[in-house]
């Protein structure tokens, strides 16, 4: 019937979205109890709907969506704390009774469990475990014990309350630690560090918990003011975060306290969950300062653009079960469930896709040339690399630049993004060892010794055929890769070749930022207390632009109106 009841034994609280609905549900529940023959204690019951109500010692407020200790429960805690006077000897059961009050209040007290841990640690150092059930045992209350109780004597702390909020989304931070260092990922970003000094001798559980604190500090700009979920393969770390400390390890409890106090005013909430070790490979590799074996994976949407333009490949030549884009794939090594792509033959009747590590591009091109293969190769446009000339000669068409996006390259199932994919300048090269772009020139001229006039003739034919500048650039690179030097320079750097498609001059003169900043420290921009308003405005606008604009072109939009 859709009636929401919060119950504990014979105490029931009916919840609904409106006054009328809660009245209707109240009547339905009362009628049902009457039919069952159950009697209601009318004196203790509150049958009028309210948005502020005390239930089981907790004051619930649906207006501010918060929960706090009721005034009666607050006074009960204060009276119990007052019985533990410094220098007195009290029965152990009295201390245990206070711990019970703290535990029942912790859910609606900010970091209540964490503030209860110091008293637990103090008690564990003075009372043997076997004596906990001996109610006649008496405990001497020391100044250090009273110090652990200081938060529980503050009525503001006891009545602060906690928000009643349903969390629909959390920022996930995955962490791991080893004896050498720590690693973490968040939203595709990676962070890591190494242990030094005494931390090299810490227990691994302490290092795992410390790794969480270091990771949250590193990712603070991304998680500030958010609900955060920490994923760790260490069960002790998960427990000490969710339970706000513990009693088994004092050092871990102190680390948890430091972590929770740091998070209290920076995060909306902090929770932890366990992740199997085999699923935490990325953070584990970062903690051991080891690079991932799978290198980088192209984003699936970018791969789909390649399929749409060049046809869908059926074989991925350099992949793993996690990174492959095709059902049939080859690996980087002879690992279990994989076949080394460079050590075995490739199927001839299927379109092949390859994104090898940069260190394997030369070997890949050698295999393509020797076996006369046809593949779709993703590789950087780096003309200075030794393998680039082979890449150009094997290309059957001009390369296609892969559109840039911030998550273009990833590792570890997309948990780590490459911070600067633009530096790779990735292109898709359609390689065909049976029909190459250089054949356009071979049938007319000797690529090694033909004159500049012949090269210019070929490029002019390309211009007349409306070839793009990018295509002509590939043609020049193909010729330069095999042509002898002309005047001590490659063909591509010859003046006549450059003049054929000259670079565009810079319309805006270049300037030195260091010189500008030095000038802003002198008259008429300094000292600030005597600066004219127009000079101060100009200085403020320029410094703001320098620290906020994302493109150099935005600075060119600045102008000064003399009036």
From TrEMBL:
One Gene Ontology term of the molecular function aspect: RNA-directed DNA polymerase activity
Organism annotation: Cirrhinus mrigala (Mrigala)
Domain Reverse transcriptase: 1-60
Chain segments annotated as coiled-coil in the UniProt record: none
Keywords: Endonuclease, Hydrolase, Nuclease, Nucleotidyltransferase, RNA-directed DNA polymerase, Transferase
E.C. designation(s): 3.1.26.4
Family indicated by similarity: Belongs to the beta type-B retroviral polymerase family. HERV class-II K(HML-2) pol subfamily.
Top-level taxonomic group: Eukaryota
Listed name of the protein: ribonuclease H
């Amino acid at each position: 019937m859709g009636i929401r009841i919060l119950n504990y034994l014979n105490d029931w609280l009916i919840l609904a979205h409106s006054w009328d609905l809660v009245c209707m549900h109240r009547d339905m529940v009362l009628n049902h109890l009457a039919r069952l023959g159950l009697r209601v204690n009318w004196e203790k019951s509150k049958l009028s709907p309210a948005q502020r109500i005390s239930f089981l010692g907790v004051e619930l407020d649906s207006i501010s969506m918060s929960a706090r200790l009721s005034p009666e429960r607050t006074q009960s805690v204060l009276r119990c704390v007052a019985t533990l006077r410094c220098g007195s000897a009290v029965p152990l059961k009295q201390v245990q009774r206070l711990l019970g009050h703290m535990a029942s209040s912790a859910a609606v007290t900010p970091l209540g469990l964490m503030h209860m841990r110091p008293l637990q640690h103090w008690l564990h150092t003075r009372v043997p475990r076997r004596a906990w059930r001996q109610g006649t045992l008496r405990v001497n209350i020391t100044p250090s014990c009273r110090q652990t109780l200081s938060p529980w004597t503050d009525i503001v702390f006891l009545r602060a309350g906690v928000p009643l909020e349903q969390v629909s989304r959390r920022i996930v931070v995955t962490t791991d630690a080893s004896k050498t260092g720590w690693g973490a990922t968040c939203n595709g970003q990676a962070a890591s560090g190494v242990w030094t000094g005494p931390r090299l001798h810490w227990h691994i559980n302490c290092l795992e918990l410390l790794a969480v604190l270091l990771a949250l500090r590193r990712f603070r700009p991304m998680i500030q003011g958010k609900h955060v979920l920490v994923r760790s393969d260490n069960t002790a770390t998960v427990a000490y975060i969710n339970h706000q400390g513990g009693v088994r390890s004092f050092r871990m409890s102190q680390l948890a306290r430091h972590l929770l106090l740091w998070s209290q005013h920076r995060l909306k909430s902090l929770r932890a969950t366990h992740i199997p070790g085999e699923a935490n490979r990325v953070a584990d590799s970062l903690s051991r300062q080891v690079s991932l074996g799978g290198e980088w994976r192209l984003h699936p949407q970018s791969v789909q653009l390649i399929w749409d333009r060049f046809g869908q490949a059926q074989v991925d030549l350099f992949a793993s079960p996690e990174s492959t884009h095709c059902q049939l794939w080859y690996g980087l090594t002879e690992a279990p469930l994989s076949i080394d792509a460079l050590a075995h033959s490739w199927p001839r009747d299927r379109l092949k896709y390859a994104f090898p590590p940069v260190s394997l591009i030369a070997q890949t091109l050698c295999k393509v040339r020797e076996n006369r293969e046809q593949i779709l190769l993703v590789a950087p446009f780096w003309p200075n690399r030794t393998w680039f000339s082979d890449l150009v000669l094997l290309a059957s068409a001009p390369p296609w630049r892969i559109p840039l996006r911030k998550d273009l390259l990833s590792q570890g199932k997309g948990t780590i993004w490459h911070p600067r994919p633009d530096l790779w300048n990735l292109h898709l090269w359609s390689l065909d060892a049976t029909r190459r772009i250089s054949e356009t020139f071979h049938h007319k001229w000797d690529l090694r010794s033909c004159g500049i006039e012949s090269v210019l003739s070929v490029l002019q034919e390309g211009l007349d055929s409306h070839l793009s500048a990018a295509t002509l650039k590939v043609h020049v690179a193909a010729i330069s890769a095999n042509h002898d030097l002309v005047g001590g320079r490659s063909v591509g750097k010859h003046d006549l070749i450059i003049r054929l498609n000259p670079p565009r001059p810079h319309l805006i003169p270049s300037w030195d930022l260091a010189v500008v900043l030095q000038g802003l420290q002198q008259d008429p921009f300094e000292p600030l207390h005597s600066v004219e308003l127009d000079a101060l405005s100009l200085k403020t606008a320029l410094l703001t632009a320098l620290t906020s604009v994302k493109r150099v072109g935005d600075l060119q939009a600045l102008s000064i109106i003399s009036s």
